[in-house]
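User: For a reading group we're discussing how well predicted structures match intuition. Take Integrin beta. Before you show the prediction, I'll give you the sequence so everyone sees exactly what went in.
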Amino acid sequence: MDGGYRYRHLIWATMMLSLLSTMCNAQAVTEPPPIDPQDLQDNICSAARTCGECIALDPMCGWCGDQGYAEETNFRRCDLQANLMNKTCQDITFPESSVTVVQNDPLSDAGEGPSTEAVQVAPQKITLKLRPKETADLTVSVRQARDYPVDLYYVMDLSRSMQDDLDNLKELATTLAYEIGNITRNFRLGFGSFVEKTVAPYVDTAIGSLMEPCPGCEAPYNFRNHLPLDINTDLFSQRVNETSVSGNLDLPEAGLDALMQVTVCKDQIGWLPRARHIVVYTSDGSFHFAGDGKLGGVVQPNDGKCHLNPDTGYNTKANEYDYPSIGHLNVRMREQNVIPIFAVTAKQMSLYQTLARFIEGSTVGTLAQDSSNVVQLIKDNYEKITSRVEIVDNSPENLAVSYTSRCLDEAPRPNSKVCTGLRLGETVSFDVSVEATSCPDNNIQKFSIGPIGFDESILITVEVACECECEASAVPNSEYCTNGNGTLSCGQCACDPGRYGKQCECSSTDDAGTSFRDKYENVASCRANTNSTSSIVCSGRGECICGECACFERQNRKEIISGRYCECDNFSCERYDSELCGGPDRGECVCDEKKRRSACKCRPGYVGNACGCATSTAACIASNGLICNGRGRCNCNKCTCESPFQGETCEVCKTCIGKCSSYRPCVECQVYGVDISPADCNKCNVAVVIERDLPTINGSSLCVFPVPEGHSNCSQTYSFVYETLSNGTILVHLVEPGECGGDSGSGGNDGDGPVVEKDASGSEIFIFVISTVVAIVLIGLVLLALLRAATFLHDKREFARFQKEQKSAVWDQAQNPIYKPSTSTYVNPLYGK
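Assistant: Thanks. Here is the predicted 3D structure of Integrin beta, as structure tokens, for the group to look at:
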């Protein structure tokens, strides 16, 4: 009794466990993610061999870490995520991108928000997690605050030619401070000047000239900081009035040296960290740039560092370092958020406009000869600067950053990072896309995005996923890898030296142990060319397991990779009419083991590489029963016609007359036994009836041809008309020629009979063409002769008229009025008295 109870209980428990197992399995597989039909084909993920390679290969790729996944099913571990889920992989590594805003203080003017300082750019910090070739999107908002602090540094060319400009600046210093105060209440002014490097040939190096290069002039210098930025406007006026001009020899000045020192000497100039930094550059001359210093023996490249004496304000290293390059200066100005305003004379406008194109955010204005308009110029260009917002970044090479601007109420503008026409207090935004193009050396990278001239930017930290977490927890000497002969990492074995195979089951030493073969020798039998190491193992479409190729399985189970070296398949043969091997009715894709490639095996009735050529001639039969009308060849059930015949069956001849030429071969083969072979003659769908007189048949033409050679003793013609019977047969009514010297019968073809058509034979066409050409040539020659005759007659008449006028000419004889003879005669009045 107890045994029966236990037996029934055991059966019941087994049934319940089976039911639960079925329910669990059903729950696991009842809702696989949908797979796009294109995903069933080979995809980009197939090339990866490790988890790190897989996630770096493409954002759509995922890695299956299940043990035995690839070994038991021969599936690829790296595959599309949907494919892995459909194949019930449980441990899928698929890093997902994310955008995390770390700090996002709202935009505000100074004193409005939680911070006492203005916030002009939001957000402030962002962290991105990206996979290679994946893009993350974020939005940057920019708002220029009202009454934002302005640091304005005035740097002036003080060569001798700028004397009147300096005099006007002394008078306008107070006005300048007043106008800046109308723009913002929080501003500071500074003043500096530049001349030239104090070495020959830029200046006169004689002792006297170095002390006083011109009467009343100050000794030359490269750059001098007269006044660091200061809120005291009276001090600005005082320092300007204390300044004197200097002198140099060449026309270009050391303006770029001055701009570099003004930019990088933050402490000496006094730039505030949260202010708009503006440099007003005034000059009536051009500038030296990198390389010009070699003329004076200054060959060391500009180091882009500050060399101002804190006590005197002079540049102490001007004669040791060359002038900076324009690109170097632009980098330093962008780093320090310095924006220059070039106020130059009209003569130098073109040069400085070119310079401004290479310095981000800069503007150019025309300075009057005496700088009388400098205040208005600064005001106008400041408004230009504040009415424009341009975004820049310093992203590393492996990150691609693109922008779309959203300026006020305008529509989004892709590939644009500039907004113009703005007023203080207006907000604009930019959509930013960041793509990791490749894996960097350091997976964590930082860069910033911000507007030109702003001391605020967004700090972006990018984490590029190029490694899998499972790689960090690899198990060395795992028993899964055939008795500990490898490291288990992310579900697959990384074999120790001397071992290979999916589970390190193969050894580089043979079973007998009598000889040693390295890994190349073991996989040599898996190469199509065993004598070449360049031959790909298993054609790149399988794995060499202990000397034999195990071909990969395709996601589409109907597509099969085959062959000893996985060199064949049933899906890559040539196509005809977009169908593999022309479709299943024409052929199939099989493995040609002799040629070691896939090839089409055509079904009966078809030939060709893609089975695109039909051997049947049914479509080539003309209406007269001949193949291609006897005027062409039938290839792949299509006619290739001889010239001038055309059409599907070579029955169209635009240069031939009617259907006479079409029926002529069949007529002549049946009546005279010529033109085509007896076999083709039997195929003619033409019946010939010999008549004494031709009947009148509507729609038919009277066909007239010469009797074939050898069938008449003289030049004779035969004629016929034709009609189509109800069964499709062409009935020809033919009248043979009479005796030589007589005419062939014409029956009832007088008056309203059919139109007479004659054979346009090759000789007649040739004669016609030759005759036409000769006629054209003769007409041309006649026209040339007539033209030559007309020209000759015209010239003859003109020459005769010339001769007549020459003979009738009467010339007056006179003495030159200015001629004086060599002798003179004088009469003495007293002679003889």
